[in-house]
Every structure is written in structure tokens, then in C-alpha cells.
Amino acid sequence: MDFALTDEQELLRESTRALLERECPPPLVRAHMDDLEAAAPLWAHLRSFSELGTGSMVDLCLFMEELGFVCAPIPFLASAVLAAPVLEAVGSELLPSVLHGSETATLAVAGDDGVWRLNADPRKTFVLSAATVDVVLAVDAAGSVVRLDRPEMRRLETIDPSRPVYDVHTDGASSVVGVVSPDALDRVLLRATVALAAEMVGTARRLFTMALAYAKDRVQFGVPIGSFQAIQHKLADMSLDVERAWSAVYYAAMTVDADDPERRRAVHAAKAAAGEAAKRAAKDGIQIHGGIGYTWEHDLHLFMRRAFGSEALLGTTGWHHDRLADLLMAGR
Question: Which of 124, 125, 169, 252 is positioned for an S-S bond with 152, CB 3.0–4.6 A?
Fold first, then answer.
């Protein structure tokens, strides 16, 4: 079996990389922290990619990995990856506009315990980009997908201000869009988890790239610090973690596309591996950079924040390890 990327997938990756390198420099990410509308021009360039949210999982991961590499502050995960597949599952007339990118949406699922599953809690947590999207969708305990009309919400203080997260109250005015089955919602969340893991691999790779470049340039005791064995070991471990996570993510993507019986194990393993890679890259990247890595002026913290923020979203590394252990113990 040939696992190489197709010519079309190579073109997708290279064109996305070139566009993001030009349109999403670190100053844009910083500007978005103060003004949520600062990334609107970037979204105008990328909204046409929203159709990837309901297409091939491998194609989606290629795109998400590049978004993670630049810490893109856009609502793609909320709108294309979470909301669009649910709209597709219920056959909503909102789907074409969301896939076209002319409208943006987000999905409110997790309740008070923060777990992404059906629940009757009137307050939904971890709702992405709720204040800036056009449509806020919530899923209740019966699977009813409702469109909320001007819901009450509160922005949460998180480590990653480039990805705004909100608590949203669902007990206000709303209209039913459709009913999503538990299996359909589960598939949406599996896809979203793999997509997020791919983004985390991109962020981890960016942190590794920055640490490697700094280790080559920073001179101490008359030699580059990259010549020190301790630094070399850290860089080697970071690289191994990133490559291991990359393999786990794309294996999970293929199992989800194929509806393989192993897909649930593969998804938990992918998110856990991406979480480990992102955390190591953030911690060791800061240590390799030394004092400058802790400063606000250096761009390292932008990617460190995204790494830790994403690790906590859609289940922490520890949570996915526990779910993987449950499956192994049950023989599934």
C-alpha cells in the first residue's frame, strides 16, 4: 500500500504553507490578542478551505498542520471542523454558506464537566470563537441541534488568547436546526480530535524549528550552544516526539476515513502523542532559548500558549491515555 501524499495533497500543503507564511506572521497573532477582528483579512484568504471540514481526513490534517505552524487565529476549527459536519449530519440549509465560508459557526457541546458528550446542562463550556462567529449551535441531551439567538456568554481567561473560548448559556431564545444521532456526533468529535492533533503537531514542529535555529545561532563560551550534548539530547527528543505524533495523527486520519474498527484507539493515541510532543516542545524550547524565551517580546510564547491550550482542548493527554486504557482493558 502506498502511503505517499498525492500530487494534489502536496499542492494543498505547499500552497497553504506559502499563503500562511505571507499572510499570518507573528505580529498578526499578537494584534489578534488585542482586537479579535485583526485576523479578518486572513480569514478572507482562508475561508474557501472550509470545505475540507467535511472531506478527506488526511487533507484536513495537512491543512490543520500548517495552521498550527503559524498559530493562525481564525475560526476554522470551530466553524469548518466542528459546526459544518454537524450541519451536514442534520441536513441543515445553513451548511452551504458555512462550507463556502460566507458564514461562520461554532458548536457548543461540553457541559459543566468539560467533557464533549451529550448532556442537559444549560451552560456549555469550551465554546470556541462564540463572540465572533455568525451562528452559535448547541446540542442538548436528546441530540437536538439548536441555533441560539444572542446567547449570554462569558469569555474565559485561558493560556492561549489567540483562540478565544467561552461559556455559553443555552436557556435563551433558540430554534431547532435538526437532530444529530449519538453515532453521528461521535464521528464529528473523532474527526475534530484528529484535526486538532494535527494542528498541535504543526505547533510542536514550529517550536522545534525555533529551538533548533536558536541553538545554531546562540554562542556561549565561544561556541554555538547546539554543540553542547545536553542541548543536542533535548533537540533529538523533541524531534522524535514530533515525528512519532505525526505518524500517529495520519494513521488516525486514515482509520477515520476508512471507518476502521481501530479508529477509536487510533484517535486517542494520536491526541495523546500530539499532546506529549507539544508539551515537550514548549518546555524544552523555552529552556533552550534561556531567559529570552520568557520575554513577551519574543515570539516563542505565542506557540507555547497554543501548544498548552490545545493540549487541554477536546481531552487532555492524560484523559486520552485513560480512554485508551479503558479500550485496551475491554479488548476493543
Answer: 169
C-alpha atoms less than 13 angstroms from C-alpha of 59 in its C-beta half-sphere: 15
Query: In sequence order, which ranges of the chain are alpha helices (DSSP H)?
Result: 7-23, 26-34, 40-46, 57-70, 76, 84-90, 95-100, 182-217, 229-257, 263-289, 300-311, 317-330
One digit per residue, the tens of pLDDT, for the chain of length 332 reads 567 889 999 999 999 999 999 999 999 999 999 999 999 999 999 999 999 999 999 999 999 999 999 999 999 999 999 999 999 999 999 999 999 999 999 999 999 999 999 999 999 999 999 999 999 999 999 999 999 999 999 999 999 999 999 999 999 888 999 999 999 999 999 999 999 999 999 999 999 999 999 999 988 888 988 889 999 999 999 999 999 999 999 999 999 999 999 999 999 999 999 999 999 999 999 999 998 888 999 999 999 999 999 999 999 999 999 999 999 888 76
Among residues 128, 29, 149, 39, the alpha carbon closest in space to that of 80 is found at: 128
Contact 29, 73 (CB under 8 A): yes
C-alpha pair distances (Å), 63 with each of 78, 86, 197: 15, 20, 12
How would you classify the pairing of strands 135-139 and 165-169? Answer: unpaired
- Per domain, the residue ranges of the chain are 7-180, 183-330
183-330 maps to which CATH number?
Answer: 1.20.140.10
Q: Cell numbers at residue 105, please?
A: 459557526
Whether 138 and 124 have beta carbons less than 8 Å apart is answered as yes
